[in-house]
Recover the amino acids of this structure.
């Protein structure tokens, strides 16, 4: 299932040419991932507090397809591609009028506060990918 999160482009998101600065797409998709996780009922603060684990970006493959501009209304989509015990792979896009402007494949890992890889608790895995369990 694909999750959608609306974002409007503000002046601060743009560069001298008036288009969205490339690094801001990473901020946009981070917000989309946070809302996807929240929408699935995963409280990341509680995950850290109760289990001592957090999600961290391990890898991003990004394609910049078309520019977004000031005041554009965008949708960030997030879709689960794969999940293992400690890793999640997502497909994310930034769309304007259903046209892709940016596409990324993002690999997240679950880490302990020490930085060591940790296994996601079973109840969290079920929330993230109910069809797999």
């Amino acid at each position: 299932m694909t999750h959608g999160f609306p974002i409007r482009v503000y002046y601060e998101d743009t560069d001298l040419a008036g288009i969205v600065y490339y690094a801001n797409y990473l901020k946009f998709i981070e917000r989309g991932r946070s809302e996807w996780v929240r929408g699935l009922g995963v409280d990341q603060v509680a995950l850290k507090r109760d289990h001592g684990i957090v999600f961290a970006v391990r890898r991003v493959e990004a394609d910049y397809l078309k520019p977004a501009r000031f005041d554009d209304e965008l949708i960030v989509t997030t879709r689960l591609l794969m999940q293992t015990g400690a890793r999640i792979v997502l497909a994310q896009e930034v769309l304007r009028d259903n046209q892709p402007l940016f596409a990324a494949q993002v690999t997240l890992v679950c880490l302990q506060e020490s930085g060591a890889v940790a296994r996601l608790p079973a109840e969290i895995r079920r929330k993230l990918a109910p069809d797999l369990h």
